[in-house]
Amino acid sequence: MITVTGATGHLGRLVVTGLLDAGVPAEQVVAVVRSPEKAADLADRGVQVRQADYSDPAALQTALQGTDRLMLVSGSEVGQRVAQHGNVLQAATAAGVGLVVYTSASKADDTSLPLAPEHIATERLIADSGIPAVVLRNNWYLENYDDQIRTAAETGEVVGSSGSGRIAAATRADYAAGAVAVLVADTPEPGVLEVGGDEAFTLAELAATVAAESGREVAHRDLSAAEHLEFLIGLGLPQQTAEFVVGLDQSIAQGALDTGSTALSTLIGRPTTTLAQYVRTVLGR
Hints:
Layout: E1 2-5, H1 10-21, E2 29-33, H2 40-44, E3 48-51, H3 57-63, E4 69-72, H4 81-95, E5 99-105, H5 116-129, E6 133-138, H6 146-155, E7 157-160, H7 172-184, E8 191-195, H8 203-214, E9 219-222, H9 225-234, H10 239-253, H11 263-268, H12 275-282
Helix pairs in contact: 1-7, 3-4, 4-5, 8-12, 9-10
């Protein structure tokens, strides 16, 4: 039986439906969710829907019973994720889970990305658990740039402070397909995979792509960290949020999302979604 946590989230839902599309019998798929009513469509397809919260060890132990392979989609509550993931892993150990697949962060053990510490701490918990695991270090989601793409098409400008840092982003659908490939493999090979888009891009290249797809001129305005912070606050972002965004861009400038890996396209057996394809979709072209 294959169990997916966070199964009504953006990524988790794609993994569940991807398993069904790959031919896994619905009764052999478990969707662990906080709100079962949000998984009614999955239940209608025959998926076992079980209720559990990452912060509820007892519910997790019940939800994971009978699980052979577990897809642990990282939690969304920053600052609480290590303890929450630990709860899932304890439940997995008690249930005799044979494989854990975890969604980590790009270069989690060697990066300045603000979100990385919780991910590398979880990777260590997985190693300590002794459960065989495939760690998928997901790069950026192309979906992270939806607003910037639309804004650039309207204003003619892409603004940031990531300099010439390259971003190996892919779509959620690409990452979900990679996870499904691991979960249904006859003999998944434990290890750590850096997964992301085949072709990394800079914000300048993002601007050029929006220009090509929108038919208007789009410039890239690269700011210093201080200028970027001032710009974001001027847009109405709270100080803490603006600082977080600037921190992300500074990490990108240092190469945090430039992995040079084609592991994802190897997993899914096709090229990852290109930037041009994605921009075209966002703009409705």
